[in-house]
Amino acid sequence: MENNNKRFSANLRMKNLEEMSSSKLDILIIGGGITGSGIALDAVSRGYKVGLVEKQDFGSGTSSRSGKLIHGGLKYLKQGDLPVIREVGRERAIVHENSKHLVIPVQMLFPIVKNGSFNKVTLKIGLASYDKLAGVKKEERHYMLTKKEVFEQEPLLNDETVSGGGMYIEYRTDDSRLTLEVAKTAHEHGALLCNYAEVIDIIKDQQGQAIGVRVKEMTTGRTFEIFAKYIVNAGGPWVDMVRQLNGPISGKRIHLAKGIHLVVPFSRFPVNESIYFDAAGRMIAVVPRDGCTYIGSTETDYHDDLDDVRVDQEDVDYLLDCINGMFPTVKLTEQDITSSWAGLRPLIQEEGKQAAELSRKDEIFEADSGLITIAGGKLTGYRKMAERVLDYIINKGELAPSPSQTAEIKLTGGKFNHYEELLHLSKSALLEFLHFDITEELVKEYFYRYGTNTPKLFNIMKELISNETNEHKEFKQIAAAAEILYTMEHEMVVRLTDFFDRRTGYLLFNRNMIPEIIDVVIAHFSKELNLSEKQIELEKQLLNYEFHKRLDFLSSKTHS
Ligand code: FAD
């Protein structure tokens, strides 16, 4: 089933759709977020014939708008959600092992605050139970800090309210890239995937059983019919909309809860490590990353447009107040914000409960037509969710049983065992580009983005450099040209926003870079796709909208 030679190229999309519609699949997955991509990888590596369609880009839903932490769910201790903590805590070790370039351990400081949810005793018990439940490795277990030690570690904290703390390990990730790499790894094992392909109808037989889907390819409007033994709805916040395509919904429904994150320059909020704190019952994370510090999140019930989730002014004011209360000398204002994002948690509705009280556990529902839906869950638990969906399907009896393999499958860029191997690769890369304005930091950034696939990116750079007609003289321009070419050819980039938002994260963490490289990126992007002036203009408008939306906050919403 290994399919290593076939590139995950945008050119493959039509071919994949044609192949999906040419013969019956074992499993067709709707949605290319972390849940759907994880199911595709689990299913194909068990030997089944698998297809996946995603209506926008991989990870463009909630899976690019999370807190970007692969975490053991310490906050769920407060809700007493022990099974969730046990599972996600153990999962994070596996997710880290299989994608070490994207899932990086970071120290997390948990300060004890006056009138907060934890005191010295309860935090100690909480962190110790967390270590035990989550099976945390000995070297990563928590330790407690006195007030003096907390302030040595983090002098920006509020001296009047903080009385001590605990230190433990969490894992920072890039959610969009993790999703993309899970999808690409599924492709490498032989799954057929296509982004910008929306399921617009469920096809049923005369007995009312779901036997296929009608899909609209979004760049041409062409439609395809795809048939499968099992259809899995992994539509995240859209799962109920997909269920409605199948017929009236019965049973449980989705409860959407919005959360936002704000990005400020690291120089304005120079924390020494990640911090997780309790602000009047809400847990707020502060995470330094790529020359920035990001903070989040909020949690409010959501009833607006699912396709364009925006940050509210009220959320911004609330988060800034929380930060300025906890770090009084920092005095962050709205003018410090350089970017933001907002996402929807697809939680499972429970009578009489508000978003913050709902469990993060996942559930599988099956409609009378046989349409299987998976909802809830977390980024961290994606592998286990996928395993459960496959076990559920196998139990139905039509597919030959086969055990899950994914605990042992390294993701496409994660094929190394020790960070030293990446460091060695990055040192040799530095030697190759000795004559250019390239820093060790930049090389490391590429390795943390593309992992063991980075040499392919560097080969494109070398080709561009050796091409005498190459008009880009600065390394920044050559690197941007190589990155857009690499991501179109190997990461199914279809739109400019795929590149600037989800493949590189420039829209979130390096916006100043965009004006410097935009012309080069557009030149190569439009040449490869042979775009007309009108199409280029549309791409620019979409990017422009995404760029400005990050700093254009909507007025008035209420917090739950
Ligand atoms: P999505 O990523 O939304 O994917 C669903 C996909 O289905 C979408 O891409 C959509 O375009 C596609 N789709 C919908 N309808 C159709 C159709 N008709 N045809 C084709 N495709 C369709 N989890 C963690 O582990 N750690 C965290 O730090 C964390 N922080 C979070 C912070 C916030 C603010 C939020 C909102 C969530 C957070 N989570 C976190 C939870 C985690 O992000 C989600 O559980 C996870 O991303 C959900 O993934 P998904 O694939 O189910 O949904």
Q: What would a concise description of this structure say?
A:
The protein has 560 residues and is α+β, with helices and mostly antiparallel strands. It has helices spanning 13-22, 34-45, 76-79, 82-98, 120-133, 147-153, 175-188, 239-246, 313-326, 382-395, 419-432, 440-450, 454-466, 475-490, 496-503, 506-509, 513-529, 533-549; strands at 25-30, 50-53, 69-70, 104-113, 143-145, 162-172, 192-194, 197-204, 210-217, 223-233, 254-265, 274-279, 282-289, 292-296, 300-301, 339-348, 363-366, 372-375. The chain contains 18 helices and 18 strands.
Please describe the structure with a list of short key phrases separated by commas or semicolons:
D-Amino Acid Oxidase, Chain A, domain 2; alpha+beta; 10-stranded mixed sheet; 3 domains; single chain; 21% strand; 560 residues; 8-stranded mixed sheet; 38% helix; binds flavin-adenine dinucleotide; FAD/NAD(P)-binding domain; Helicase, Ruva Protein, domain 3
Description of the structure:
The protein is an alpha+beta fold and 560 residues long. The protein has three domains: 23-62 and 176-247 and 359-408, FAD/NAD(P)-binding domain, CATH 3.50.50.60; 103-169 and 262-298 and 310-343, D-Amino Acid Oxidase, Chain A, domain 2 (2-Layer Sandwich); 419-549, Helicase, Ruva Protein, domain 3 (Orthogonal Bundle), CATH 1.10.8. Helix content is 38%, strand content 21%. The protein contains 18 helices and 18 strands. Strands 3, 4, 5, 6, 11, 12, 13, 14, 15 and 16 form a ten-stranded mixed sheet that branches. Strands 1, 2, 7, 8, 9, 10, 17 and 18 form an eight-stranded mixed sheet that branches. A hairpin with a 5-residue loop joins strand 8 and strand 9. Helix 2 runs parallel beside helix 7, helix 13 (454-466) crosses helix 14 (475-490) and helix 14 (475-490) packs across helix 17. The longest helix is centred in the N-terminal third of the chain and has 17 residues, at 82-98. The radius of gyration is 23 Å and the shape is globular. It starts with 12 loop residues before the first helix and ends in an 11-residue tail after the last helix. The mean pLDDT is 92. The chain binds flavin-adenine dinucleotide. Residues 30-36, 53-56, 60-63, 65-69, 71, 198-199, 234-238, 242, 259, 297, 343-346, 377-380 line the site of flavin-adenine dinucleotide (FAD).
